[in-house]
Structures are given as C-alpha cells and as structure tokens.
C-alpha cells in the first residue's frame, strides 16, 4: 500500500479485523465575508456527497510490553464507497483462508461466579466486541452448577463436529471441567473405554481460555500474562499450541485428566482445609497454606517413577520453553509419527541425578533400585521415605504471584512431567524451599529435595500390613526400617489435582504428549519482542 509518500505493509497474520469508517471527503467551500460582494448572476452548485463510507480501518495487534497485546486501528481513505467496499471484502476473505486456521464458530462457557462474579460483564465488555469485529459466530452458555460444562460436552449436546473451538471464561477449574468433558466425549465417540493404562485420543478442536478466576495458571504459562484482551486476541488469530495432559488413575481405575499440578502432602492438605473455608473467599488459600506449613506433616510412601529417555533434559537444565520451542517441536513430531509406539530405551542416569539421589537418601532413608515385573524397564526407579510434599507438574505453573512457576524449566509439550519430592525436613528448611520456588531460585543444592523429569509415576502410602509385606520382599531394606514404618504409618494426605481433591492416596499417573491444543502460541521470547513490534506495521501510522 502507498500512503502519503510512504510505503507501508501490514502482516495479515497480525490483523484482527476490518471495519468501514466514515471519513469526510475534502471539498472546497465558499466563504463570504462581511463586506463581500455577491454576484447574483453567477449560478451556485451544490456538491453531492456519497452516503456510504469513504474509508476503512484495519485493526492490528501491538505489543506494549510484558507479553500483553493490544489493538490499534490503521485507517485508509478511498476515492469512493465502492472501492472501500472492495477493500473490506478482500481483506475479510483473505482472513478466512484455511492457511490461518482462524475459528469461525465458537462455544463460549462462562462461569458467572468467577472473577468475583464479574465474569459475565468482563466477557460482554471486552471479549464479545472483539469476537464480533472478527466475524466469529458465538454460542453463549452460562454454567449453572459444577460440572455443567463437562456434562454438556460428554452428552454431545453441542454438536462439537460443527464448531471450531471451545472457550471457557473463568479460572483453572473451569478449564479443567471443559478439558475433561472434551476428552471423555472424544473417547466415547470412538468407543474407547476410559480404563487403566488406556490411550486417550487427541480431539480435533482447540480450547481457549479467558482468564477470570482466582488462579489463571494455564493462561499465564501459555501466554506470559493473565490479561483478558491478550487471551482473546490469541483466540481470534487462531493460534495453536499442543500441551501435555496427564491421565490419573486411583486404585487402578481412571478418574480424571490433569494439566497443571498434582500435589500430595503440603499441597493436598492446603486444598482440603481451604475447601472447608470457602466463605473466606480467595484469602482462604493464604490461611490454609499457613496452617499446613505450621503443621509440617510428613507422610510415609513409596514412589515409583520412569525417567525420561532424554538424559540431557532435567528440571534444572535452565532451558526455558518459549514459543516455537525446539524441544516441544521435536516431541510433537515424534508423537505424531506414531502415537501408539511404546518408548523403549536403555535407562541412563546423569551424574547430576545420581548425586541428587545420594543426598536425598540422607533425609528419606529411601532405596533406589530397578524393579521387576511391570516395572522392568531400566528407566524405572523407586523411592521409599517420609515426605512433606510430593509434587508433579506438567507445565511451569507460572502465575501472577510466582511468575517463574513451580518448575521454571518445565516444557508445555515435551511429553514429560517434573516430579519434585520434598523429604521430611524442618519448618525452616521447608520455608527455604517455598521461598526459592516462589522466586524461581535454584533448589538443587537443597539435599532434602529431589527433582526428576519423568514419563509416569505411581505413589502408594505405607499404611497397611499388606504394604509392609510387599516392601519387605525388596532387597537392601534394613529390618529396623520395616519396624519403624509399621509403628509410624497411621496417617495419609490427599491429592490436589488441578485444584480438585482426590481423597484416595494411591494413584498412578501417565503423561500424554500434546494431547490437547489450546488457542495460544506459548510465551514469546522477550528478546524477540522488539523485532515483532517493528515488523507489525512499518512505518507506524494511525491515519492516512
């Protein structure tokens, strides 16, 4: 395009929409002064102005900083309304191209109680106008109860094959509800029974999230901010990123899917206590967290985990997951080639992992060994000990309160999860762990912490005589330890599964590589932000 002596280009991938605007045509006017003489013999003409618009505005994306996106209008003036209409039609048709994969029909679920009961207003004021600008047809549903959205999806009440995506306006709990409903529907539609160690199938449609909850971990981790407008624009542009999903089994029975945190001990106790104090609002989490910290409970258990076959990948490797991440791209390509292929590899432990394990034994009195039977793969390990916390994360779990997240170098789509085991320790030691976690500081030098990148893991509490008999059959476990276990195993914790309580402590968890796709692109590398700003519209201009 050529405007006012400047050649400027707009990247269609960054265009939100286009709309007609009325720009007054420039015309010469006659002005008569006080003493002006008017020749009555000269005829006067009235210039006819077109009723239709003489210009149009293209709405593009700008990046003011901190991973936030905003809209900017670039206006163009045409010679006549017909030419204006042609430009608008041409741009709209170009944006509908399959190459852009932009959604045309969406189902939007809104939790009216999210965001201090402001979710509905937030959607109508900030989200809906942008959807209308982008010519997206929306089916709007306000949820009336817990699991309302999940039930609608499982029952196929929405004819999912006719839509391009699902959008949930709420917090992480709302997303979990939509995720579980979509994956269960997909399995049922293909006559797949959700049972122990089944292989879930990736759905064809994407999920978008408009952050409106007390926690917006998934949005923050996949976009770098919990900003409503930014998330809406990612949906409009048709951005797409695959994220890993866990299948969680309790007592060998499938119960649900998880994408953020699975926490036993401290995180489980915190959630269970806070559920009884909902009347306190969001402040209940701080109260329950303090209470659980002061209690400093530790729980006996046995953890079996299968290490990632990539010995170079580790929770402390300082390799961050940004948009276009090479690690996630390679994992996605490998997964797409053969989703049914079982990974068989010679287990190799890095020196770092072996050193960690050696220090960890001092606190947990644990024994690491290769297992037999169903755990014959040499990548399998087992740890027996007393734990303040056992946490598994499938993404970094970044949020406004802790931008680095629980595991800053965890990847969105590498087909792995980071397993963090905190052995019994003093309150001061555990506080040190919590503070370092919140600030994203190094934790590998804490000898009561062990972190591994794993494909799957299982946990069972050591509370029953049958468990003790099973343990006693393993080698290299001192008799004194068995007696100690039997005397002190009277309590168990619960699991915090994406903010939902799982009461049964015995679970097994597997990760499924990039099982679900979101309307997002991952956190953009800050070093590339300036280039993206310049390339969006060069040179910058508002009017023409």
From TrEMBL:
Residues 101-252 form the DAGKc domain. PROSITE patterns: DAGK. The lineage of its organism: Eukaryota, Metazoa, Spiralia, Lophotrochozoa, Mollusca. One of its GO terms (molecular function) is ceramide kinase activity. Coiled coil: none annotated. It comes from Dreissena polymorpha. This is DAGKc domain-containing protein. One of its GO terms (cellular component) is membrane. GO terms for biological process: ceramide metabolic process. PANTHER family: CERAMIDE KINASE, ISOFORM A, SPHINGOSINE KINASE. SUPFAM superfamilies: NAD kinase/diacylglycerol kinase-like.
